[in-house]
Every structure is written in structure tokens, then in C-alpha cells.
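Run: sequence + nicotinamide-adenine-dinucleotide -> complex structure.
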Amino acid sequence: MQDPRTQYSMDNKRSNPEQPDPGLDTILKPQADHGENSYQGCNRLAGRKALITGGDSGIGRAVAIAFAREGADVIINYLPDEEKDGKETLKQLEGCDGKSWAIVGDISQQDFCQDLIKQSVDKMGSIDILVNNAGKQIFVEELEELSSEQFCQTYATNVFAMFWLTKAAVPHMPPGASIINSTSIQSYQPSAGLLDYASTKGAITSFTKSLAKMLINKGIRVNGVAPGPIWTPLQQSGGQPAEKLDHFGEHVPMGRPGQPAELAPTYVYLASQESSYVTAEIMGVTGGAHLP
Ligand code: NAD
Ligand code: MG
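>> structure
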């Protein structure tokens, strides 16, 4: 047993250095915890086939480690510039019961989304768990500085890709399969400066609930996870203004940012049969900042 407030210590020099987009866990300071040395599986996902977008780093890496240790086959997707992080995640998956692969490419392109599903089915035979986790977040203070290009790219990455991937994957998902979408507390408590990002997360929350009602006829459950402030490269690579990084996450009741490792068990729960009666749900992991 441990006091959660002091479970992780963060120093106050966190923007060191600010990273280009996409950010890398490899050079994140301080380093994040993805459960590398702590997550213990017990066959909750034995034999299941999982595709995780943004599985190279942050929350996606923690989910990949947990799924693999629970016995799943795992494919991670990420961008070409994230090869270092992708390789490190794959290294963490070695030695687990299931197999693991990386399929690299840009999910803001419809053709690639379809190809990613095709390649995943070729490798694994089916998709039992689809984790739509990849996301783009670039903080822009003023409306006049928010470009059309950024607005469209954030929607393509966060929302359109989720539609393209889901539509292509569902024919390969058997009854009992699970779709898990990474939404955000920003869906409910949108910040100024995250106009494009926060509104994509609002869309993801509604998409998740609507899709759940559509797909239960096929025996597929659909849920979302809404993280609060989590210490990942997304925040250091434009997701937050530099001056906010040193105190990132201190405003929530827990008084600190969460670590990716603290998210993984919720994804495992939603992927496994343990959550058989749970669909159209959004589960918050926020350090006490409540969803409505
Ligand atoms: P992260 O940077 O580690 O992960 C985001 C991933 O998205 C990247 O690793 C990258 O591989 C992927 N990605 C971005 N654009 C892509 C593209 N065009 N094609 C393919 N992949 C692309 O950061 P994270 O915080 O772990 O983010 C994971 C999810 O969690 C995101 O959806 C994010 O919005 C959500 N989230 C994060 C926080 C937080 O505080 N970190 C809070 C709420 C929600
Ligand atoms: Mg990454």
C-alpha cells in the first residue's frame, strides 16, 4: 500500500529541452514510468490480438506492455520519426507469451489506415482489441494564430483516423471484441489554447458512445478512457506552453501529473472479459479532476 500523492516524485525542471513534434520518450525529462518494472500480468488477455495506435510512447507504450504481459499479441503503430521509441517499446515486449510487431505510418491518411488494418489482419488473423490512442495536441494561445492546416491535421489524426480505422477493423472483429478510444478530460473541461484538440476529444467521446450503441449488435463493446494530465512526450512537444510544463498536473486534487503506468490497468480492464457488461462508458483517470 502506498500514498498515491507521493507515489511519483517530479522535480520542477521538466521542460528540458522542449521537443519537436512528435516528442520522444527516449529524451523525456524526467523519464516516465510505463510499468516496465512493475506491471504483472495474469493471462487476462491470453491469445487476444491487439492493435494499439501511438503504441511507441506514453500511454500507448504502457498499454502495449500491459497487454503483452497479459498474454496478447500486440501490434503498435507510430510515425516514422518515432523509430527510437518504437524500438524501445518492442524491446519491452520481448519475452512475453504473445508476438509483437510494429507497423509504421501516418494515420492521418485514409489509405494508410486501411493498409494498417489489412497488415494487422495478415499478421494476427483478427483484431480482438483496437486501441485508438494516437493523438495530436499543439497549444495555440490566440484564435488568429490557429491555422487551418493545424485544425485539419488535428481532426484528421484524432477523429477521422478513428473512423477510418474502426470502419476497416470491424469486419475482422469477432463477438467479444473491444474498442477502446483515448479521449481526454479536455472533452469535458476544455482549455483555452487547445481549441482544436479539446473539440476533437469532445467528438471522440460522442463517437465512442454512438459507436457502442451501433456495434453491440455485433457483440463488440466500445469504451473510452479520459486521462487527466499525464507525463508523456505529447506535453513537451507543443502540447503545453513551455512555462506551464514545470508545474504540469499540479492543479488536480492529487497534486501531481499521472504516469502512463497508472493508465494501463484501465485499458486492460476494458479489453478483457472482466468488463463484459461495460459499453458506451468513459472512464476517467484524472487524479481527481472530475468528469461531469
Ligand atoms: P504520446 O505522444 O506518447 O502519444 C501520442 C502518439 O500519437 C504518438 O506516440 C504518435 O505515435 C501518435 N501519433 C500522432 N500523430 C500520428 C499520426 N499522424 N500517425 C500515427 N501516429 C500518430 O502522448 P500520450 O499522452 O501518451 O497520448 C496518447 C493519447 O492520450 C492521445 O490520444 C492523447 O490525446 C491522450 N491524452 C493524453 C493526455 C496527457 O496528459 N498526456 C491527457 C488526455 C488524453
Ligand atoms: Mg510517440
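>> summary
The mean pLDDT is 96. The CA atoms of residues 107 and 161 lie 6 Å apart.
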